[in-house]
Amino acid sequence: MSNLRRVSFFLLHLLIIFYLNLQLGSCSFSSSSSDPITQQKFDRVNYLPGQNFDVAFTHYSGYITVNEEFGRALFYWFIEAVEDPSSKPLLLWLNGGPGCSSIAFGEAEELGPFHIQKDGKTLYLNPNSWNKVSNVLFLDAPVGVGFSYSNTTSDLLTNGDNRTAQDSLKFLVGWFERFPEYKGRELYISGESYGGHYVPQLSQAIVRYNSAANKEQINLKGYMVGNALTDDYYDHLGIFQFMWSSGLISDETYKLLNRFCDLESFVHSSEKCETILDIASNELGNIDPYSIYTPSCTTNSSLPNKLLKRLIGHLNEAYDPCSEKHSIVYFNQPEVQQALHVNPQFAPVKWETCSELVNSNWQDSSRSVLDIYHELMDAGLRIWMFSGDTDAVIPVTSTRYNIDALKLPTIKPWHAWYDDGQVGGWTQEYKGLTFVVVRGAGHEVPLHRAKLSLTLVKSFLAGESMPTLEQVSDS
Known about the structure:
Elements: H1 3-27, H2 36-43, E1 59-67, E2 72-79, E3 90-94, H3 103-110, E4 114-116, E5 123-125, E6 135-140, E7 149-150, H4 161-178, E8 187-193, H5 195-213, E9 220-228, H6 232-245, H7 251-260, H8 271-284, H9 305-311, H10 323-331, H11 334-339, H12 356-360, H13 370-378, E10 382-388, H14 396-406, E11 410-419, E12 422-430, E13 433-438, H15 445-448, H16 450-462, H17 469-474
Parallel strand pairs: 3-6, 3-8, 8-9, 9-10, 10-13
Antiparallel strand pairs: 1-2, 2-6, 2-7, 4-5, 11-12, 12-13
Helix pairs in contact: 3-10, 4-5, 5-13, 6-7, 6-14, 7-8
């Protein structure tokens, strides 16, 4: 063989190897390489089915193993900021349940950039995505939630608050190894609902992890929770009061709820309390308790556009009450799972937004996390609580009872905040904590009031007060 032919053959061989590696990188769920940077490249998402628009940011998805012995691995989707990600903080988002997916809710219908059309197959770009102001990391935790899995089946029956916090901490440590360019970056954690447990508990675990290492390993700066389960007693008290004062339940049921449920565990309630809760649910009727003034998603719900707009006109934003159903269609598609590097060996037979198996077998659930708030305030973290005021599940009244129980001195008294010249809600600043009400929002604030939620997270990340009318007028 001539030298020229040898060179040509060698170059062709290199091209074939390069092509095969490129193909593997676009569809593989995992790399066998122990090199974190190589694995990061494997995790990069090159395309999404149904995406007919270009994006100016990079995103990644995959797994971080948090327990080698039992084979527990948590699934993540990381989406860099639209502009200059190297200058933006990192924000970790956690949905609650317990047992609900941050991919399903946080990314696909709340604060993420990729939202799903009614056909369940086509994507559209969320104009109020939080990756306009931060790099956003969505985590499905614990195992059994979304695409997160364990090789040990019994793990799905033994999840609880403590292990979730510890596994999420191990996830972060492993994730920073895979993305070393984010080591030392300012980290903020946010979430909603049962995330009211996850977020402060993980924050506490990080602070203690840093303290045990005697140096700052993870640069946690603060956390923010919305419509958050915080203390079983105060949350129950606020829920029952909100439902009664909003005209959703009868006087008799209100009295029974306070009598039999006030002192109950939110996750492990008694049979008597469950009976009264069922009565209250029946009295509510076919409404969406997560957003009491918007239409609920029904099986025959294809309301005419004009009627739908009239029903939700007060929101002044497009709102689809069936967005969760669109996620179920989209994330069950094999090509979507392949694009997101889902491990086919452990992919759920049917992907669900929330796992009933995880929820019904939840083990330890703290009756209160208020003690964690005091500990983390003393550690100097920035702490915000926000609340949509049309949520009957963890309503604004519950959050106010919880904050009152902290007995914090007021720094800035109660006042309205503004967005585009209109009242966006109300706020009060305390020593160590800021409280923000988002006007017209339900349980999922970024879903119901997307633009206001972007204003909220901008202020939180900047450590600034919510904008006043004067600030709006000057801009």
